[in-house]
Structure formats: structure tokens, C-alpha cells
Amino acid sequence: MTPSSSGLEQSEIDAIQELEQTSRNDTLLKYHDICIDEGVIEQDVDMSYFSANNVGEWIVELIYQNNIKKLIMGATADSHYSEGMVHIPSTKAEYVFRHAPHCCNIWLVCNGNLIQTRAGRFEHAGSAHSYSESSSSLHSLDSAPIPYGGAGRAERVTQPHALSSSEELSARGFESMYYEEQRRRLEIDELKREKKQRDKMRREAEDALSSSFGVSQILYNEEVIRRREVEAELNRAKAEIEDMKRVQKELEEQHYADCRLLEMFQKERDEAIKTTEELLRALEKGESSIPLQWSVSNEPPQCFICPISKDIMQNPHVAADGYTYEADEFRRWLNHGGEKSPMTNIRLQNHNLTPNLVLRSAIKDWLQQHP
Questions:
Q1: pLDDT in tens, 258-297
Q2: Are 138 and 175 contacting, i.e. CB atoms less than 8 angstroms apart?
Q3: What distances in angstroms separate CA 253 from CA 155, 177, 247, 344, one per listed residue?
Q4: Tens digits of per-residue pLDDT, 54-83?
Q5: pTM of model > 0.70
Q6: How many CA atoms lie within 13 A of 26 on its CB side?
Q7: Cα separations (Å) of 270 from 264, 267, 283, 287?
Q8: Planar angle of CA 27, 31, 35, nearest 5 degrees
């Protein structure tokens, strides 16, 4: 048996051959025990086997070497037996049947039935074995019917009769070996079929796994691409929300600053209108041009005080937050890193300053009255 001819790996062939050798040794030991139990002298029980490509040639050689006179051999496997079998399916049995020495009586059996016999021919007279004795069937196989209908066989097949004790013992041993060998071969064939089936199932499983892995990989790649797209879209949405929040915050700050500026302008406008009305009323009465409330108190009005320096402003200017500051003080505030309003602590929209001429005129009049 070779890997190329059997389709098996060398390791598998070695395992099968080792199994065959173990089974063969067990069979020979069983045959030895049977012979001993039946009273055969142990020295007469020969246990040997040969390994060759053509088993039939070795059987014939064994017959010649040991001068075997009687041989019981399987015609074919029991599974191939059919009612009325005539021909010998086994090439090994056919070879032995044709090439064994003429002095050897041969019985070919299958499934407990005698298929064919070949009578030994002796050249010397007075032989203990006659033609009829050499062509008798096995007593152990008499329980099954023996077919006689085959052409070219009637002249060689005779009516069965009981064997002698030595013949029966030999027949039992050969029969046991024959059936044991058939069982062993069936086991080997079954192992081969099981291995072939397992290999087929393994290949199918591998193919299915490979196909499943390919589909899973495609689905995984598609899922990764989809998640990346979703993450990119989510990041864009987050960025837009952050921009909207920033713009909203800036608008709120701008709105707050605008409201504060509007309030300051309204307050300064109201104060300017009030001061102008008082000055006009004083002029109409012929009084001093200085408002009465200014002459009563020496403290300057709070609107004359710079929120930064806390001194009376000389050059008042309105900043982006709507409050009025001394121009130089506010510029100094900006130069020292001030980015937020000194009054509201809100980031200034710009650093522009607008002169507050009405307030500067009022401060100038107040300072003249309070040197």
C-alpha cells in the first residue's frame, strides 16, 4: 500500500499496517489456543505469517515448504456470498486453487458453505488418502446447504461426510483464522470509510467556515464604514451645535452690552436734560448760571467720577460697554491686558471711545464753581 495508490497519508498507512499486524498476531494466538485446547501437541502448532504483494504466491510457497496435504481457504468475503455460487471471485483463492501442488487437497468455503474442492492426486500406491476422502467437505460447514448446480463442478464436488478428529481440528483452526481475518479486514474497511467520511465532513466544514468568515468579514467592513460615517456626521453636528452656542452666547453678551449702553445713554440723556432745564430756569430768574444743587454741596456728582481712577474726569469718553471713563485711564486699562468691561466684566466688543461732550461741559462748569 502506497500513498499514491491508496490516497492516504504515509502516517495513516503505517497506522493501518500496525493495526493489521496486531490483529494478525491476535488471530494466530487464538488459533494456537484452540489447537492446544483440542489436544494438539504444542510443537505441532506452527504460527508464522508472510507479507508480500501477491499473497497467493506465498500461500503456494508455504504449501510446498511444509508439504501441506490439506488446505481450507476462503473463496471470497462472506459479504459477497450468493446462493448457488460457483465461480471463485477471489483472485488469491483462484491462484492457490490452480498452482498448489497436486498432492494438496483444497476446500474453498464462503459464509459457512463449501464452494469448490480440489482432490489431491498421489503418484504412489497405497496412499492413506483416496479421491473421495480428499474431496469431502468440512463437518463444521455441514449445517449450511452446499450448492451443486455449477457447470464444470459436478465432477469435483462429492457428497459430504464426517471428518476425522484431526481433520475436524484442523478445519476448526482454519475456519477460525479465516473468519477472524475477514472480521479484521472489514474493520479496516470500516475505518477507511469512516476516515474518508470524516475528511469529507472536515472539508465541508472548512469550506462552510471559510464562506461564513468571508460573509462575516464583508458585513464587519460594511458596519465599520457605516459607523465611521455616523461618527463623522455626529462630529459635524456637535461642531455645529458648539458654533450655535458660541454665536448665541456672543449675541446674548452683545444684547446685554447694547442694553447697558442704551440705559447709560438714556440716563445721561435724562441727566443732561434735567441739568439743562435747571440752567435755563436759573437764567430766566436772573440767577447765577450754576445750578442750585451744585452750590449747596461741595461733593461732585457721581456721574463726574471715573469708575477706574475714582477721580473727576477731565476728558470723559463713552466705551463699548456704555459707561463713561476718563480716556487716558481706559486706554491704560486696555494696555494692561484688560479685555472686559471694568463695570460689567463682559468682554468688550471693541476698544472704541466716543467723547461725552455734554458731560465734559457740565464737569467744566462744576469745577469753575468749586475751584
A1: 787 778 777 777 777 777 777 677 666 755 444 444 444 5
A2: yes
A3: 129, 109, 10, 10
A4: 778 888 888 888 888 888 888 888 777 887
A5: no
A6: 11
A7: 10, 5, 20, 23
A8: 170
